[in-house]
Write a structure and sequence with these properties.
This protein is of the alpha/beta class. The protein is built from 7 helices and 4 strands. It has one domain: Ribosomal protein L4/L1 (Ribosomal Protein L4, Chain: A, 3-Layer(aba) Sandwich), CATH 3.40.1370. The protein has a 4-stranded parallel β-sheet. The radius of gyration is 27 Å and the shape is elongated. It starts with a helix and ends with a helix.
């Protein structure tokens, strides 16, 4: 227990880890078609010489209406920002240490519920709470997922972003061994 809750706070490290998690969650949605992806334009619109008009090779040129877009947003952008595992673990321990100093972590023996009412009775005094389970119990997860401002996660999946999103942490005592 001392090993987990004695970490010194380093805001820069926590920022890096949370930023990388948020950055990896981004979805690549903006995408424009360039001249080779736009439908049509396979034939030269008119011959090269003798018409008195400018020479053109395709009606899907970016200069034309209905043509491709020049330098538009593409989906090929790489949105992965890799953070070493040791840094991620250290950030989680720092946040847990800070929450322990402020008495925002509540320990229980075992959290087992089959209905939302049972979970609600446990957490009714806590405004915003993250429930940390030692083992993934599907019935408890289903019972807790419908409560607003309540998150539920297993100890092996604990991360910095989820810890910072909720004010209180309700944790099983067995989860501490897994976190260690």
């Amino acid at each position: 227990m001392e090993k987990i809750f004695k970490e010194k706070l380093n805001p820069d490290l926590i920022y890096q880890v949370v930023y990388s998690q948020l950055f990896c969650r981004k979805q690549k949605t903006a995408h424009t078609k360039d001249r080779q992806e736009v439908r049509g334009g396979g034939k030269k619109p008119w011959r090269q010489k003798g018409t008195g008009r400018a020479r053109h090779g395709s009606i899907r040129s970016p200069l034309w209406k209905g043509g491709g877009v020049t330098f538009g947003p593409r989906k090929e952008k790489n949105l992965k920002k890799r953070i070493p595992l040791k840094m991620k673990k250290k950030a989680v321990l720092m946040i847990l240490s800070a929450k322990e100093k402020e008495n925002l972590i509540v320990f229980t023996e075992k959290i087992k519920a089959e209905k939302t009412k049972e979970i609600y009775k446990i957490i009714k005094d806590l405004k915003s709470v993250l429930i940390v389970l030692a083992n993934h119990d599907i019935k408890t997860v289903k019972a807790a997922r419908n409560i607003p401002k309540t998150g539920i996660i297993s100890a092996k999946d604990l991360n910095a972003l989820d810890l910072l999103q909720y004010k209180y942490v309700l944790m099983e005592e067995q989860a501490l061994k897994i976190i260690k």
